[in-house]
Automatic annotation (TrEMBL):
Short name of one Pfam family: DUF7978
Domain DUF7978: 4-192
Top-rank lineage group of the source organism: Archaea
Organism this protein belongs to: Halomarina salina
Residue spans crossing the bilayer: 12-36, 101-124, 131-151, 171-192
Keywords in alphabetical order: Membrane, Transmembrane, Transmembrane helix
Protein name listed in UniProt: SoxR reducing system RseC family protein
């Protein structure tokens, strides 16, 4: 394939990759929500009872699932202002459910599948265009990751708050995962179609 043809597909591949990144995040979160929201609601019962006692706002399930999904990217949850000082939690690692570890597979699989489909649909036909287009998933995935890290910050009351640290979320979940998984997915599609 000529360089001109390869370059002509690079722009659409990059745009498609960016959209795929946002779609992959939403898909991964949805799968996590479907798989774990019931257990998360059960786990929040005691916490929300305490939060009610100190006059705080109960943690909504969607926020806790957001923390859980970010945990699947190796991003911990921080709690500040609690007695005993700051604490860090990995909800997946601390889960008593035997299949919770499977949720670690959701982010890479969502990125791989959605980005590969996007690169296939846009018609990448070489390894380089596919890898670059796939890596552009970082744009959409990174924006959604940052937004979720910001909006999922939660004041529990009595000066206690829980959140996923924005720098960790952006670097690990928003950049590393989509760049690695997206470029691999795009490169594989390009290689298959070359």
């Amino acid at each position: 394939m000529s360089n001109a043809t390869s370059n002509s597909r690079l722009g659409p591949a990059a745009v498609s990759g960016a959209v795929a990144g946002a779609v992959a995040w939403v898909l991964g979160y949805a799968v996590t929500y479907l798989a774990a929201s019931e257990r998360v609601q059960d786990a929040l019962t005691d916490l929300n009872a305490f939060v009610g006692l100190v006059g705080g706002n109960e943690v909504p399930t969607w926020k806790a699932v957001g923390w859980l999904y970010l945990n699947a990217h190796m991003v911990s949850v921080r709690v500040l202002g609690a007695p005993g000082g700051p604490r860090t939690y990995d909800l997946l690692a601390e889960s008593e459910s035997g299949n919770a570890a499977l949720l670690y597979l959701v982010p890479p699989l969502a990125i791989l599948l959605v980005t590969a489909a996007a690169m296939w649909l846009v018609g990448v036909r070489d390894l380089v265009s596919g890898a670059i287009g796939g890596a552009s998933a970082v744009v959409g995935y990174g924006v959604v990751t940052a937004a979720v890290a910001i909006v999922s910050r939660h004041a529990l009351g009595a000066g206690i708050e829980a959140f996923s640290p924005l720098p960790n979320a952006v670097v690990l979940a928003g950049v590393v995962y989509p760049v690695v998984c997206g470029s691999v997915a795009g490169a594989l599609v390009g290689l298959v179609r070359s």
